[in-house]
Amino acid sequence: MKTVSKPFAAIFWGGLLAGIFDITQAFIGFSLMGSTPFRILQSIARGIFGVRSREMGWTSAAIGLLCHFTVAFTAAAVYYLASKKLRVLVERPVLSGLVYGDLVFLFMYFVVIPLSAIGPTHFNIATYITGPVGHPLLVGLPIALAVRRYSA
User: Fold this and answer.
1) Is the whole-model pTM more than 0.90?
2) In the predicted structure, residue 130 carries a pLDDT above the cut 90
């Protein structure tokens, strides 16, 4: 039986956990503002399709979920690759992961989303909960701990 390579395992588990935790916090946080998981997934796809995303039904929701996990696995891959040069990312995973989670949030909200079909966004209470509070704990930390676990 072939063993899973360490880079693959680090990126897979970091991305999967971050993706699950992040989408769960989005479902909870934005449901407090009246949204549904279906609409949240469609909102993610809005980055590609714009306002037309709502008209696309389950197609845009499925694409939104795919986009969400693509971002999570990419964030894990970036952290893993950076950890090969910056050993502090592996030696201090808790602190590094918390900082990385905030960096992921800042990059998404101030670079990716404004450049997408969504355009500039407005902050609300759900954004603060899922962003600067949730991303360090639920995105950065799982990625950093997975990379630590599977690093030589």
Assistant:
1) yes
2) no
